[in-house]
Amino acid sequence: MRDVVVLGAGLHRFGRFPDKSLPDLGREAIENALDDSGVPFKDIEVAYVGRVLAGMGAGLSVVSEMGRTGIPVINIEMACGSSTSAFREAYLSVATGVYDTALVVGFEKMQRGLIQIADQKSYQTVMGLAVMPASYALQARRYMADHGATAEMFGQVSVKSHRNGALNPYAQYQTAVTLDDVMNSRSIADPVTLLQCSPTTDGAAAVVICAASKAAQYKSGRLAHVAGWATGSGKYEPTGDSAEGEADTGEIGRLVAMAWERAGLGPEDVDVTQVHDAFAPGEIFSIEGLGLVPVGEGAQAVWDGRTEIDGDIPVNTDGGLLSRGHPIGATGCAMVTEIVRQLTGEAGPRQVKGGDAHVGLIQNAGIGGMNILVLTS
Questions:
Q1: Which residue of the set 12, 162, 276, 326 is catalytic?
Q2: How confident is the model at residue 122, as a pLDDT?
Q3: Phi, psi (5° rounding) for residue 132?
Q4: For residue 96, with 0-12 CB atoms within 10 Å meaning exposed, 13-18 middle and 19 or more buried, which class applies?
């Protein structure tokens, strides 16, 4: 397997753009990524595209905005994890020597309101679990009972994320909020309030990757390397002495262990993290699952400011899904973009550790699996 680097990344601002088409959004993100990478589009050998709601052939329509060069354009759908899945496939194609350069693109235009994640006749729908706020709220209630956390601790996640989003010119929401604002916003699924929910969003993100041995042809200086990855879905494990069991709740821990093994690193090495905070409790569950804090201590870590930009475990420095926005096909690529900016010292006012970050961790959940990525500088 060859060493693979991220040469460039680019975004179209996340938000609501009713007058713009998907090709409009995607073209801007791709142009920004190509400019950042120094790679002309004619040198791109393959494109992997993450999209969910866009319909048949959307990837080709967007990538063709840059020209028709005959490259394969491969569409990938894994709900919110689509563009990290696209990134993984692009990485593998370059690491194994099939291609030297690859473009990864994610995009989405979304309608307002809750997203149904299961068929109308499924057991999830019958049980009221086919909308994500209900699932997160039930987990949050159990967490509060088990660990003595408060609703305000979950609310603090959103306060931190919006503070970070105010520093990000590409974020959907660029205004800080107070804890009172969060807690007094409309209840969605107790204890989750409106400001603890990620918005439905329009947006696009793109990344250019390259074999490290070829990178000097295009760009010099500090680059982000793909050090480790893992992907997988939930696993059924029998528990106790009987043959009956329950779904494994340790999916994130199992996958991050695989990623660390590939990278030769561990949670103690992490300088900056992007987690899938579709709803505020998700950040707390994720930092525990990733091993950044012990189980039961995530809420307190957020409350104590440890996940802030200047904390010891900075999380979602660009505002995360809660403030940057969550155009589901583009979210994963946006997470990669922020980690690349942090590792190359180009995050501006969001920069962690005085520009001396060397290990970035990404956790992006989707329907059909979760993706973990480890990038290093």
A1: 326
A2: 65
A3: -65, -35
A4: exposed
* Rounded distance between C-alpha atoms, residue 184 and residue 195, angstroms: 9
Q: Using CA atoms, how far apart are residues 5 and 227, in angstroms rounded to an integer?
A: 9
Specify the fold of 136-194+233-325+349-376: Peroxisomal Thiolase; Chain A, domain 1 (3.40.47)
CA angle centred on 110, ends 8 and 208, rounded to 5°: 10
DSSP state of 80: B
Catalytic residue among 12, 80, 197, 276: 80
Note if 326 is an active site residue: yes
Residue ranges of the chain with per-residue pLDDT less than 70: 113-130, 237-249
Residue pair 270/313 in contact by the 8 Å Cβ criterion: yes
pLDDT for residue 368: 79
pLDDT mean across residues, the chain: 92
Output the pTM of the full model: 0.92
Euclidean distance between the first and final Cα of the chain, in Å? Answer: 18
Domain ranges of the chain: 136-194+233-325+349-376
d(CA 65, CA 31): 10
| pLDDT at position 233 | 84
Q: What is the pLDDT of residue 251?
A: 85
What is the residue whose two structure tokens read 């990623």? Answer: 259
Q: Give the SS3 label for residue 164.
A: helix
In contact, 281 and 144? CB cutoff 8 Å? no
Dist CA 372 CA 124 (whole Å): 26
